[in-house]
Amino acid sequence: MKKLAIFDLDGTLLNTIKDLGEAVNYALDRNGFHTHSIASYPFFVGNGVKRLIERALPEDGRKNSTIVKNMLTDFKQFYNEHNTDKTTPYDGIPQLLDQLNEMGVQLAVASNKYQQATHKIINHFFPHINWVAIAGQQDGIPIKPDPSIIFMILAQTRVAKQDTIYIGDSGIDMDTARRACVDSIGVSWGFRPVKELKEYNANVIVNRPQDIIPIVENGIPL
Q1: Structure confidence at residue 46 (pLDDT)
Q2: Which residues of 129-163 are buried (b: 16+ CB within 10 A; e: fewer)?
Q3: Does 3.90.1150 match the CATH number of domain 17-82?
Q4: Which pLDDT score, from 0 to 100, does residue 133 have?
């Protein structure tokens, strides 16, 4: 049985897209740019807030460091106040986390969302879960798909790579797991298509949170 399950946040544990999109649209409007439909935002997220802002801006805006800086300030001001307004756990996720806790599996989060928001959101929606690590984007630590955040959690928990599973919804997540040399589970309910998970060599893809349990218990099916 796996001893440690590390989860991505956005698109894996929680559907955060409405709050993210509204925060970026607020910043775009404040800085004189056209906003986007919320349906556009699943294709913008995944590489941290700065890249989210750059993708939402027109080309001339994303090349201007002052504009990007101002957008980041406005985004965080809005998002810090509203990041739980419309965010919801995916169906079955609370039950999955409860069951894994009861099984004695250590649980952690590894996200490209900045640390302040990651910590707040996880503790807001899952306050009863015994998290061994809640790791968001932090100064001095490269964002995923660099595996540094995974190595940091492994060092903190003292769990071996072969006893660890990483769960996420994007190619970035699958690439992170591959670079860290840990098994990966791709989830089909998130922001990115299953095709992307396959292209980035997810070890297995699941359609329901409950399908993660037997993989944690028995390992990646052959």
Answers
A1: 84
A2: bebebbbbbeeeeebbbebbbbbbbbeebebeeeb
A3: no
A4: 98
Evaluate whether 4-15+87-218 and 17-82 have a shared fold.
no
User: Among candidates 75, 33, 34, which has minimal Cα distance to 52?
Assistant: 75
Q: Which parts of the chain register pLDDT below 70? A: none
Q: Which two tokens stand for residue 133?
A: 């690590």
- Give the pLDDT score at 222: 77
How confident is the model over 185-196, as pLDDT tens digits?
999 999 999 999
Separation CA 21–CA 75 (nearest Å): 10
**Of 166, 174, 176, 171, which is closest to residue 192 (Cα–Cα)?**
171
Spans of all domains in the chain: 4-15+87-218, 17-82
pTM above the 0.70 mark?
Answer: yes
* Contact by Cβ (8 Å): 135, 109: yes
What is the spatial distance between Cα 206 and Cα 208, in angstroms, rounded to a whole number?
6
Q: Which CATH number fits domain 4-15+87-218: 3.40.50.1000, 2.30.110.10, 3.40.50.1240, 1.10.3110.10?
A: 3.40.50.1000
Q: Which residues contact 95 (CB under 8 A, 6 or more apart)?
A: 209, 210
Q: Tell me, what's the pLDDT at 118?
A: 97
C-alpha closest to that of 2 among 140, 170, 169, 203: 203
